[in-house]
Amino acid sequence: MRNSADDEFRDFMRGRWPATVRLAYGLTGDVGHAEDVAQAAFARAYASWGRVTRTGDPDAYLRRIVVNENRRRFRKRRVAEELLGTLPDQGGLDAADSLDERAALLTALGRLGPRQRAVVVLRFWMDMSEADTAKALNCSVGTVKSQASRARSQSPLVLQGSSDGSYMVSVGGVAANVTYVVVTLADGQQLKLIPVTSHGHRYVGYVLPAGYRVARATAYLGGGQELVAVPFNPPGHAIPELVRWDPPGQTEPRASTVVVGSGTIDGQRWSVIAYVGPWGTCVGRGHGDGGSCWADNQMNSTGTIGYVGDTAQYVVGSADASVTEVGVALTDGTSTVVPVKAVGGERLWAFALAGGQHLKRWTAYDAAGRQVAAGTS
Fold it and tell me: Is the pTM of the predicted complex or chain greater than 0.90?
């Protein structure tokens, strides 16, 4: 690359670094991984700088590299999202993005599938147009609109909570079309939560004595519409999870609990437990571990849906009705076959990763042993 081209790329990288780290942070949820993704993206752009400049829109080309680089790393190993105590400098988030805002945002993003998450980050966090978002994701504007609409409809309210053993504190963000929220307790008492606005974001919160259980939450929207959520109350945890929101009056699925994976790894027994019910699908390791929760629309095909465990060492997947078992190949050359378990109306599978192992590929089989699906993440 000639010196003039080097200078051009250096100026480009200097000017785009803050926005690129911000985009990568929204996709990964981790400051360190965001910087790694940004660095890798710029390295790829530098290696193809002539082609990048010939596109006439190097910004769009770079954003697509960032999205693809994150997908590539996601397939190697899902990043365990942690709400770190240090924000990126002005190369990352705006000063107005407080820790509470970031916590609520990452929780909401973590409940979306990879494609929906990318749409939301590009469209709303990066404030990009539908056309530019579609270009970055190499999809149609119609796909961007439908994914964004589905993502927004899933989470009218996102709460983060903590408990010191005496009190339970929950606070989080609400969507722009939510007028107020009513939290109904198991004993029939109700809390009416009126949103307040700070730094352009809307919040609600409440404090309860430990031991009180939330029976349901109702979000009242503009135009007289309502959405109702039945919480998942994790075993041993005081903080309810609100994941699935439905219009009132719909039939609620019956609660079901099944061990979807178990075994011994590194000399230790392990198990992954699925809790399916009106709250959606939640998976954890038991012993007070609430794990991760997903809405039903993320469970409609065969593939991995997420990870549980402090270091993302337990892989969880869903399966179509025809799938009876899933073969998994790991990066260290080993492989195993995982049975699919029925849990309520869902079909799930799970397995554990030993230290240093990562998922390389999965292959789904029907009862006759025929391959019906395969993937890498």
Answer: no
